[in-house]
Predict the structure.
Amino acid sequence: MKILKKIGWFLLVALLIAQFFSPEKNNGDLTSITAFVQETNPPDNVHEILKTTCFDCHSNFTRYPWYNNITPVNYWMADHVRHGKGEVNFSEWSTYSLKKKEHKMEEVYEEVEEKHMPLESYTWIHSDAKLTDEQIKAVVDWAKSVQSDFKSQLNN
């Protein structure tokens, strides 16, 4: 029983020490998505959906909840953001080629339509990010339209 007590104390001390270390935050500027918004021109309802469900992980600006100050949660969130930005970063939209933009818009509507996005782990805490069928349709219709425009430009 003494060994379990020692292990418990060790884990507690390690957890307390870990609180002094945290990953770098994704503290860019929300205006960094301006180029994306201007080019894709989402309707107001879709723009709100994107702000609520996408930009935290897919841009250079993340709204951090209070629990992001707790290690190891902050590392888990940082990994989600890093991975999300690796898939598509709306803050870097202006650097994408037309072909890449066309492909990313296809991925946007596919991921939303198949209900892979937003992630379930994100919607557990952000209940406002759970999309209704109507919201899914709005995002999918918009993204398909934008993707079609990009495809037309590629073919000209």
